[in-house]
Amino acid sequence: MLARLLRPKTTVSAHCDLPCGVYDPAQARIEAESIKAIIEKYQSNDDPVFRARALIIKEERSQLVKHHLWVLWTDYFKPPHFEKYPQLHQLFNEATKLAGAGGTKGTLDVAKADELLAKIDEIAKIFWETKNA
Amino acid sequence: MLARLLRPKTTVSAHCDLPCGVYDPAQARIEAESIKAIIEKYQSNDDPVFRARALIIKEERSQLVKHHLWVLWTDYFKPPHFEKYPQLHQLFNEATKLAGAGGTKGTLDVAKADELLAKIDEIAKIFWETKNA
Amino acid sequence: MLARLLRPKTTVSAHCDLPCGVYDPAQARIEAESIKAIIEKYQSNDDPVFRARALIIKEERSQLVKHHLWVLWTDYFKPPHFEKYPQLHQLFNEATKLAGAGGTKGTLDVAKADELLAKIDEIAKIFWETKNA
Amino acid sequence: MLARLLRPKTTVSAHCDLPCGVYDPAQARIEAESIKAIIEKYQSNDDPVFRARALIIKEERSQLVKHHLWVLWTDYFKPPHFEKYPQLHQLFNEATKLAGAGGTKGTLDVAKADELLAKIDEIAKIFWETKNA
Amino acid sequence: MLARLLRPKTTVSAHCDLPCGVYDPAQARIEAESIKAIIEKYQSNDDPVFRARALIIKEERSQLVKHHLWVLWTDYFKPPHFEKYPQLHQLFNEATKLAGAGGTKGTLDVAKADELLAKIDEIAKIFWETKNA
Amino acid sequence: MLARLLRPKTTVSAHCDLPCGVYDPAQARIEAESIKAIIEKYQSNDDPVFRARALIIKEERSQLVKHHLWVLWTDYFKPPHFEKYPQLHQLFNEATKLAGAGGTKGTLDVAKADELLAKIDEIAKIFWETKNA
């Protein structure tokens, strides 16, 4: 029951550069969850065709994580946020790097996907603090 | 406090056609929320350049709603679901039409965006029932 | 009669969501023909680089088939069509699934591409009946 | 003879750069038909929102015409074709220009869409001659 | 003569996330130059169709500027660079904002395009210093 | 010092179909440089995952080369240019083919990337002659 209440239905929000004013770190997290699942499936399936497909799709999904994070960093966060959370720039830089060649694009290590998810959660925590402020 | 618990952080999930097994109607809803906000901003701002930009972006966001719903309909839902929920096909067809020319692409009526959101919520309800089954 | 046979060439038509009113199942079929050819070439060429490229491209082409079919289902077909052809929803759902992970994306079986082509032809038959009605 | 008339429907074909060996000028023609219909609808509807949407979509469709023609020119046609049909280069250059700023992108003149269609038909005629050779 | 030597021919370089190791701020600058030209043409042409097209294209080009800058910030620059140039994070954040709603997307002021170009040049200066280090 | 002056900073220029009037062969060359670097990295790294990623990315980058060249051929060059440089059509056709299945898409031979780069330089030479004329 509580699980059902925890569903994203009521707070989802996004991001276009009108701007519509709607943003949500969930977009990046959804893709990162997908990446983690892809890596797990890759590790437990040694069919070469399946694995090639997993690599193709993981590449795309990692790019989407980067894109959604970049949008938050440039479009949602404003100078006062960066003043209040001086670690934000580095946090975003590290998170997007974790979805790149040195991160989930280049590896098949599920720990790397977990690092990426943790970093997105750090960003999400700050995001919701500023949103609810 | 409860509000913070309701955040999407823990259940977000998605959708690639590996398949990764991760899906979430939140992706469609996020874009639909964005469309609603765009329409509201359009209605309260008569600058022609702003309005032209709103139309351009609303077109893209509506297309994204359609895409995310199509993915759920084809990739997530399976024959047993369609048997259990015989209204599903029509529901998806109506929802995607509501993001098209006869819906949020073609109009600037906020009620149309609300209809789309309600339809997505109907789909989400069924989605979570099948997910938790 | 002959006029109908001559049809495709002169009336080729499509699909944008203005809507322009121009639609044609040929768009999906063209991509499905391409998929079949890719699978055949993959089967008769064991160079690993060629095969990797075939997998990358087959993934894209399968996605295009899904896209073109989704557009027909949502944008071209209207409630009266679904009443007259109650099998349409399932037909489209099966056809798009045949271009997905359980279909031409996930396999290298030319029979799967043939199934997809046959399903598209069933849709095309209904499409032209409604178009000429 | 009749066989040739029946051609498009059964052999529709395309174009990926594996190459799959499947090409068809119908892809460009479908988009050009769409452009013509968009212009006609624009001319008979003076609602500014509809017209803005028509311009957005016409821009995309014109780009697709260019893309499909470029693919034929680079990927399908080979040196012997260009020797046999020395006008081919200019034909493609003119056709793609007709879908650009000086053509269907920049104007709302239905005659321009007709010129584009005629040019695509010239290309298609040569295409089918080489295909059947 | 010197002008010809100054051409980009020999040093252009780029950026994919293999990574290929090839990056170049010229990619962002090219799009920003395009934006400036679009704004100038918009200001000197009051045809509403031309202006609508200018807005559509300016939106795309501004997005490309953001994309190329994000790639440099995440993929090219490494921790030692951020230590040596502590202003880099803010510089990139401001530059990408200048290509967004509060910058070249939202305005038709040529001064805004000049600000964006100047910011890209600041980034380029640092880029080449690190590249030649 | 001279090396720094030779940087592309001052002359980069581009290309949209407004048209903005800004074009630059550097865009194609940047992607071709990237392709060459990808091939070199592929040849010196036999990790199968790295190699699969290299193939995926090389496919995209080759497509971008084709796109940038097509834009120059259709949008920048005008009839008087084709009269003055009768080899231009063939040059572009060969260059785009060199980025296709018979060129950098289909091979991992660094000599093919060099041929592509040389062909782009021939085009660039003519481009700048017409630009400075």
**What's the CATH class of chain A, please?**
Mainly Alpha
Q: What is the number of independent domains of chain A? A: 1
Using DSSP, what is the number of strands of chain A?
Answer: 0
Oligomeric state: homohexamer
- Integer average pLDDT of chain A: 90
Order of helices and strands of chain A: HHHHHH
Pfam family, one (chains A, B, C, D, E, F): Sod_Ni
Protein name (chains A, B, C, D, E, F): Superoxide dismutase, Ni
Organism (chains A, B, C, D, E, F): Actinoallomurus liliacearum
InterPro entries (chains A, B, C, D, E, F): NiSOD_sf, Superoxide_dismutase_Ni-type
Describe this structure in words.
Six copies of one chain form a homohexamer. By secondary structure, chain A is mainly alpha-helical. Chain A has a single domain (23-131), classed as Nickel-containing superoxide dismutase (Four Helix Bundle (Hemerythrin (Met), subunit A)), CATH 1.20.120.400. The first copy, chain A, has helices at 2-5, 26-43, 48-76, 79-84, 88-98, 110-132. In chain A, α2 (26-43) packs antiparallel against α6, α3 packs antiparallel against α5 and α5 packs antiparallel against α6 (110-132). Chains E and F meet through α1, α2, α3 and α6 of E and α1, α2, α3 and α6 of F.
